[in-house]
Amino acid sequence: MAAVESTTASELSALLGNARARTLQLVGGLDESQWLGPKLAIVNPPLWETGHLGWFEERWCLRRLADGSLSASCLPQADALYDSSRVPHDARWSLPLPDMPATLRYLSEVRSAVGERLSQGAIDPDTAYFARLSAMHEQMHCEALTYTRQTLGRPALQGSAPAPLSAGTCDGDVEISGGCFELGARPDDGFVFDNEKWAHAVELPPFRMARMPVTCAQFADFVEAGGYHEPRWWSDEGWAWRLREAVLAPAYWTLDRGAWFRRRHDRLEPLPANEPMVHVNWYEAEAWCRWADRRLPSEAEWEFAAATVPGAPGIKRRYPWGSAAPSGNTANLYGTAGRCLPVEALPAGDSAWGIRQMIGNVWEWTADWFRPYPGFVRDPYAEYSEPWFGSHKVLRGGSHATAPELIRNTWRNFYTPDRRDVFAGFRTCAL
Ligand code: FE
Known about the structure:
Elements: H1 9-27, H2 46-61, H3 78-82, H4 100-118, H5 125-151, E1 173-176, E2 179-183, E3 200-204, E4 207-210, H6 216-224, H7 236-244, E5 253-256, E6 259-264, E7 267-270, H8 282-291, E8 294-295, H9 299-307, E9 363-369, E10 393-396, E11 413-415, E12 424-426, E13 429-430
Parallel strand pairs: 9-12
Antiparallel strand pairs: 1-4, 2-3, 5-6, 6-7, 8-13, 9-10, 10-11
Helix pairs in contact: 1-5, 2-4, 2-5, 7-8
The structure holds fe (iii) ion (FE).
């Protein structure tokens, strides 16, 4: 079992309540024709995904028995409908799912029973752990429901971005000393996932990392230089993907009378030159790097640049800027702008090395495959990490659609290298 922070019922209720408010915002307004939506490998039907949230919470918070088996669900056939490790992805559109009002009633019923457990005096560590896990699981699915809205061209939800903060330029590279450092989470970091455990020594040579992620304008230079027509910039797998998918430009980009436009949800906007490149997959990021004589950082380099402090060996920060929880001044996460901000915004969130926006705005691809840290032991939710080792690439830092309560410097996200629907961009290092 993971280390558990000392947690009060009201903290857990707030975490669960924040996640649920967001779920309802994302799925509550869908009309009946949108409950299932088109059958695509990269999205779940929203009706299924909503029911799966209730199933997960009930399974972990209410149904675990001492002998490891599960008690019955309050919803007949819940396991056959919503167990993500048992129900194949393309079967999720043809199941006898309850309709949305009945699904939301199931979620409320589960949540009331969980609330009752939390209100019964001292909370045991298992209850606290699984209630927190359920809130995080729901917030992660909320990010997925948000990029599903982008994939399907549905309206954005979170209002418009504030005026870009003028923070001056912050381009160029930072020279980072490297040295011996501990990659991963420490036992006193509170709730962490199995894939972050545990901190272990890594020796890094000095490296130079860009202060800002690659912008849309910088990516457009590659496109206009014929980057999508030149196999020499691509790995064999990347070029095979490019040919197979017949891709000639980044996702959502269209050329109109010589100018690039990009679809954001249901609107076509002029390409925002100064925002980070987003909806780019690992192959495209890698090709840009070869063209530009740059490279992706390793995840150890990313975490070193985000968490360590020059001249203070042994210190590791929870966030690039320190230990304070993220705010609208330090990171563009869910609840801040609702879309990407320009790459020079939010200087108060700089890391101790002066690197900007490591948390928030866009997830950042790293060079590395997702693999277990030494001594890996799976947590009770065994399907979270282990099935994906070796087939997914690691991303760090969170996006504008990531909940602030999820993200931290040691958090490892992971997607297959062909995914361009997620809110992912990249930052580079000098060769
Ligand atoms: Fe799930």
